[in-house]
């Protein structure tokens, strides 16, 4: 297959049925649904419509999208809509990017308890940032956080971590002024790491005590309280990875970052190189290396590739993009205009429409630009799932200019 046209969908279509049958007892309903959605995305199985250009008469079929949040083809549309809302919320201040990563030992627990532990990861990271920012020894202000959950590494292994975007400052305790952070410095990483570790472990233990965690296979022994405490004991003494990147140069950089990260799936089609009868080759970055050595090509058996891809299917209804502090849905409408007033910037004409946590819902795949002349494409026919259009775009079509 051409390296420029290979898609995750091609891999699932060619090898998915046999692999599902061989692993019937190991796939969840959610994973099966993701596979099916990707396989039928933008095919006649979902129906679609026929478009014709008003200018040159070019005609094409546009099949409907699956709109699944794990589909590499659908998420860019969702990102566009989400970013339009976020643009209205940006403040004219530096923004910082802070990453919180779970130790591998916790990652194993997280995989067997996705909804509980991923939610805990997001909330603990956000509370760590807002708590340290509010401390007078550091920033001494109420700030906001946009947190995005990623569960994968570049090689598709399970690697839960949270990317947080934070404005470089916040509202003073008396609510009267904007407190700016120091140039090129937001909060001390070591302090963040220790508080994050404490908050996460305390709450993980509370979940265990309440019987809300479940363990299987090699972790089954952790149902016992003593075994669970012994498992966590070494993690209380190790440093947890919290990484603060350089601040963004401006709002445009923040939006460019968000466009890349918020609606990303485990692997995009552009990283795929080749599919043969038994293996998939794809590009990846090895962050343990530097320079040219960082860029590598991995070759996996198709079954292993599909297994790794499906590791990252999220529980139904789980929101992987969340807002906290000044940016929380309940505060945003009041706090952002106050921030703009303190920063002496004009208010926006209207506040960004409330997202209500629906960050992962893709929009229609309609595309109204003609690929031939740039004219407007108009829908001339629609067809239902599993059916075909009556007209044939491949055949010459008469175009009436009147």
SSE inventory with pairings:
Blueprint: H1 8-22, H2 29-40, E1 48-53, E2 59-63, H3 75-87, E3 95-101, H4 104-112, H5 114-134, E4 144-152, E5 158-167, E6 169-171, E7 178-180, H6 189-209, H7 225-232, E8 242-244, H8 251-261, E9 272-275, E10 279-285, E11 295-301, H9 302-310, E12 321-325, H10 332-342, E13 377-383
3D structure, described in words:
There is one protein chain. The chain has 402 residues and is α+β, with helices and mostly antiparallel strands. It has a domain at 82-266 and 311-342. It contains 10 helices and 13 strands.
Alpha-beta content class: alpha+beta
Largest sheet: 5 strands, antiparallel
Helix content: 25-40%
* Mean pLDDT across all amino acids: 87
General form: globular
Helix and strand run: HHEEHEHHEEEEHHEHEEEHEHE
Distance between the termini: 43 Å
Q: What keyword list fits this structure?
A:
402 residues, five-stranded antiparallel β-sheet, disordered C terminus
Compose a concise summary of this entry.
By secondary structure, this protein is of the alpha+beta class.
């Amino acid at each position: 297959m051409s390296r420029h046209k290979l898609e995750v969908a091609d891999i699932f279509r060619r090898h998915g049925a046999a692999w599902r049958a061989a692993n019937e007892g190991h796939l969840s309903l959610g994973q099966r649904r993701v596979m099916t959605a990707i396989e039928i995305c933008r095919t006649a199985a979902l129906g679609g419509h026929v478009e014709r250009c008003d200018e040159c008469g070019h005609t094409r079929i546009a099949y409907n999208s699956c709109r699944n949040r794990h589909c590499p083809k659908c998420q860019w549309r969702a990102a566009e809509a989400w970013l339009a809302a976020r643009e209205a919320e940006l403040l004219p201040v530096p923004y910082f990017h802070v990453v919180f990563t779970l130790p591998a030992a916790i990652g194993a627990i997280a995989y067997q308890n996705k909804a509980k532990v991923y939610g805990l990861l997001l909330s603990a990271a956000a509370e760590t940032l807002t708590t340290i920012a509010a401390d007078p020894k550091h920033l001494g202000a109420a700030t906001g956080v946009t947190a995005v959950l990623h569960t994968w590494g570049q090689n598709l292994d399970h690697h839960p971590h949270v990317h947080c975007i934070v404005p470089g400052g916040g509202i003073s305790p008396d609510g009267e002024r904007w407190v700016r952070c120091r140039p090129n410095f937001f909060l001390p990483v070591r302090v963040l790491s220790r508080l994050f570790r404490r908050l996460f472990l305390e709450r993980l233990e509370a979940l265990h005590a309440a019987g809300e965690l479940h363990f299987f296979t090699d972790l089954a022994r952790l149902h016992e309280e003593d075994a669970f405490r012994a498992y966590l004991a070494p993690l209380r003494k190790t440093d947890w990875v919290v990484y603060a990147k350089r601040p963004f140069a401006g709002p445009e950089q923040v939006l460019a970052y968000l466009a890349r990260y918020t609606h990303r799936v485990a692997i995009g089609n552009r990283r795929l190189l080749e599919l043969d009868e038994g293996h998939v080759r794809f590009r990846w970055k090895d962050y343990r290396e530097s320079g040219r050595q960082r860029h590598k090509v991995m070759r996996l058996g198709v079954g292993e590739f599909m297994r790794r891809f499906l590791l990252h299917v999220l529980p139904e209804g789980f929101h992987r993009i969340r807002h906290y502090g000044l940016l929380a849905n309940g505060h945003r409408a009041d706090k952002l205009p106050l921030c703009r007033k303190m920063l002496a910037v004009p208010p926006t004409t209207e506040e960004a429409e409330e997202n209500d946590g629906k960050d992962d819902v893709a929009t229609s795949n309609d595309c109204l630009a003609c690929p031939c002349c740039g004219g407007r494409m108009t829908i001339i026919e629609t067809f239902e799932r599993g059916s075909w259009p009556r007209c044939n775009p491949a055949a010459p079509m008469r175009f009436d200019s009147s």
